[in-house]
Amino acid sequence: MSIDTARGVLGDATVAELEASLRGSVVRPGDPEYDQARAVWNAAHDRHPALVVRCAGTADVVRAVEFARSQDLLVAVRGGAHSIAGFSTCDDGIVIDLSPMKGAFVDPAARRVVAQAGMTWAELDHETQVFGLAVTGGLVSSTGISGFTLGGGVGWLLRRHGLASDNLTAAEVVTADGRVVRAGERENSELFWALRGGGGNFGVVTSLEYRLHPVGPQVLAGLIFYPVEQARQVVTGWRELTERMPDDLTTLLVLTTAPPLPFLPPEVHGTRVVVLAGMYAGDLVDGEEAVGPLRTLGTPIADLMGPMPYTAMQSLLDPLWTAGAHNYFTSAFVEPSDAALDAVLRHHLETPTPSSELHLHQLGGAFARVPADATAFSQRSSRVLCNVIARSPDPAGFDAHVAWARGARDDIAGHGRGAMYVNFTGDAAEDKVRASYPEAVYERLVRVKDAYDPTNLFRLNQNVRPSAAA
């Protein structure tokens, strides 16, 4: 359906009736704010929805879902609009935009927070850190809390406190038939199981309740830069250290190109480097001892590891990940064998743009102690998550950059389990989605999909097809 056709089918009166039922607003093609309203973080997805419904609360979400169903419109759900695969926008359909929904209530005594789904991690951290509390959040603070959590949620607190989804205690969900349900351990428990790792398949999550933990306000964290000539010894030395690191320490290796930052020598700018990023979530004195070995993996170009506010670490990478670039992310759970690390190092030397990278996320700790069947996120035994990123400010040649990322992933995944992290899946390939869940888990997800979205209204996600649509 083209935009013009959509306008004709919907009609001004039909849209006006929808808008009159909302506390929020409707943005249409031709409205002055339309281009801003349709824009998403990843410029690789330039879509033109027929309507953007900017929801002020749960009631608006219910109206938008009912309207989409009655008009047979494709539905995209937007929180922080970071969806790498472009699921937070669409052509000719309706975007249910949750970004105006930013309320949060923190109960410091119970160590709980209820947050509306339009919040970003910067906004939620701002509320919880007043009380010295936090939950595992995104590595880039402009990421929305909802999609991040529903896909799992890998962050700096992963080894100490698990994934974001491991700390989800309840969620409010608008289902495909317009009902508002609460999902938790005692209510709609199968839906609750599926929400923790099954993505946005089952409805529109309008609020999330998290378990919080004492964190900060100061943590021991930062970055250590090593030259590419020492990449092999740094990567293999890091692998050995991960076997005995305390749970309070979570690390990430970034194989990238040095940006022109003032704390790096000018002769390093534009050269390939290995960056060791990490955060120790416990006592600062203990943290100094824990991160000490990270400083001796080679001869650092720059050592920026030290005490800093937790919120500073949460936003440390933000300047490198602003909106408007073309992005493709893909991933593989791997064991860090010599062969796997060889593949990572080889593809680092072939990155197609200065901002294209490979990441090695350290797993284990609290993440690994969650039983594999406790949540839909069941990839608990892998030691490392490898993320391959093609990123460019320019659309020219981007298809070739994507091909590099897919090729690197396939090469590296040959040394792993073939499963991907659904939040780092750059496209909606059904075979990749199925491979990311064990067969029994995928079949259980289908049963939940059948119960809550049997017609696959919510299909712009890493889609689990209901039985009727299989």
Give a description of the structure.
The chain is built from 16 helices and 19 strands. With 470 residues, it is an alpha+beta fold. Helix 9 (231-242) crosses helix 12 and helix 12 (338-348) runs antiparallel to helix 14. The radius of gyration is 22 Å and the shape is globular. The model is unreliable at 1-8 (pLDDT under 50).
Give me the Rg, rounded.
22 Å
Average pLDDT confidence is 94
Helix count? 16
Q: Which oligomeric state applies?
A: single chain
Strand percentage, roughly?
15-25%
**CA(first)-CA(last) distance:** 23 Å
Question: What summary fits the major beta sheet?
Answer: 8 strands, antiparallel
Shape: globular
Structural class: alpha+beta
Q: Which range best describes the helical content: under 10%, 10-25%, 25-40%, 40-55%, 55-70% or over 70%?
A: 25-40%
pLDDT < 50 runs, ≥5 residues: 1-8
Strand segment count: 19
